[in-house]
Amino acid sequence: MSDNTQIRYTDNQAIAGRPDAYIDVLVDVSRILQSWRMSLFSHEWLLPDGRIKDLKELPASEQIKRQAVELAIANGKDITKPVLGIGLLENVEIGTGKAEFLTLAALGQTKIPVHIPKSNESDFKDFVAGVE
Fold first, then answer.
1. Nearest 5°: phi and psi at 91?
2. Any bridge partners for residue 112, and if so which?
3. pLDDT in tens, 11-55
4. d(Cα 80, Cα 96) in Å, to the nearest integer?
5. CB of 81 within 8 A of CB of 24?
6. What's the CA gap between 18 and 91, in Å, rounded?
7. What are all long-range contacts of 37-46, with beta carbons under 8 Å and residues at least 24 apart?
């Protein structure tokens, strides 16, 4: 899959009650993964060197989530935008949509649209796609 693959995205229900508190940005996947490696939750999906685990290496519950995202993509269904934020260690955290974000990344997407809190907008300037 490449960024030319037509994937339609839909807003995450997690922001439905507070749409004015979030903005949509297109992020650089490699930069997000590099930061997310520091997350306490990254071990489920990432190998120690930062690569995304193969399907068989994921915990069973995460395998099911990844397969569901892959099936949705294969069937042309909309993919829910992940919600990202900045954690206590000042690294990127994936609030909701972890399976969506990481499956897309594993399939080769280099840019993914996400929701971020407006309050984190300046913290994400280095993660926005196209920023060098």
1. -105, 165
2. 27
3. 999 998 887 999 999 999 999 999 999 998 899 999 999 999 999
4. 9
5. yes
6. 23
7. 37/91, 38/89, 38/91, 39/87, 39/89, 39/91, 39/92, 39/93, 39/94, 41/93, 41/94, 41/98, 45/98, 45/102
- Give a three-class secondary structure readout of the chain: CCCCCCCCEECCHHHCCCHHHEEEEEEEHHHHHHHHCCCCCHHHCECCCCCECCHHHCCHHHHHHHHHHHHHHHCCCCEECCEEEECCCCCEEEEECHHHHHHHHHCCCCEEEEEEEHHHCHHHCCCECCCC
Q: Give tens-digit pLDDT for 89-101.
A: 889 999 999 999 9
Cα–Cα distance, 73 to 108 (Å, whole number):
13
Name the phi and psi angles at 118, rounded to 5: -55, -35
Structure tokens at 80: 């829910």
Q: Which pTM does this prediction carry?
A: 0.91
CATH number 3.10.450 is the correct assignment for the domain at 9-124: no
Which token pair is 20? 């004015």
Could you tell me the residue ranges of all domains in the chain? 9-124
Q: Which two tokens stand for residue 115?
A: 């929701």
